Sequence to fold (282 residues):
Amino acid sequence: MPNLTLDDLSSEIEANVRRALAEDIGSGDITAQLIPAERLAQASIITREAAVIAGTAWVDAVFRQLDPRVAVHWQVRDGERVSANQVLFHLEGPARALLSGERSALNFLQTLSAVATRCQHYADLVQGTAVKLLDTRKTLPGLRLAQKYAVTCGGCHNHRIGLFDAFLIKENHIAACGGIAAAVQAAHKIAPGKPVEVEVESLEELQHALEAGADIIMLDELNLDEMRQAVAINQGRAKLEASGGITQSTLRTIAETGVDYISIGALTKDLKAVDLSMRLSI
Fold:
C-alpha cells in the first residue's frame, strides 16, 4: 500500500483541528479574555528532548483556524531529527490566539513526533537490510491518518489504512469461509484488484496461501527457522510479512531472515509524548 503524504491529508488535518479546538475551547477561552484583545505577543516553542518531528501542518492549521493574523515561523520540518532544547518554531500575533491555541497545537506536535521518533528508532535497528517496517490499525481513534503520516516521517511504512482498502484474511475469516482457498477466491471476486493478504500460523498453511494466490502472506509468530523456510518455499511468489511478538531485541534477526515486511503495533500504540514547551513574551 502507498504511504500517506500531506497532499492526501489536507481535509483530514482541517477536520482534526476543528474537533480539537471545539473540544478545548468550547464556547470560549475565558482565561484568554483576561488579556486585552489588541495585545500582540511572540512565542518560541522548544523541545526538551531529542526527537523526530512530525505534525507541522496540524500546528499551522490550529493557528490558521483560530486567527489568520498569527504568523508561524518554522525552524524545522517534518522528518527532521532535533536535539534537546532546540527551537522548533516561533509565533507572532494576538496574544489571545497564541495562548488559546498552545495546548491543541502542542498536543498534535508532541503526539505525532512521538510516533515519528519511535519509528525512526526502529528503522535505525534494521538499517542495511531490505525489510520494510509497517504500521498497523492500532492507532488513536480519530487520528489514524495523522499517525500513519507520522510513521512515514520516521522512516517506516504504511500497511492498509483500514478495513476497506485491502483484505487481511485471519484465522476466524478462514474458518468462517471454509478454508484459505475459499476465502482468497471470494476476496478476488468481491473486490478485484484489492491486495489480498492471508495470515498463516504454519508452513502448511503457507503452502495453501501460495496455492490460493495470496498477494501477501503474514507469518504469525513463526520462529526464526520457520521464517527462513518460508522464504525458501515462497521463492518470491508472494510478499512475506512477519508479525506477532516482535521486540526491539528480535527485530534485526527477523529482518535478516529475508522477509519483505515486519508489522509492529508498537509504532503507533506504545507512545510517550515528546516534551515540548512554549515561552511567551509580550
Summary: The longest strand covers residues 40-47.
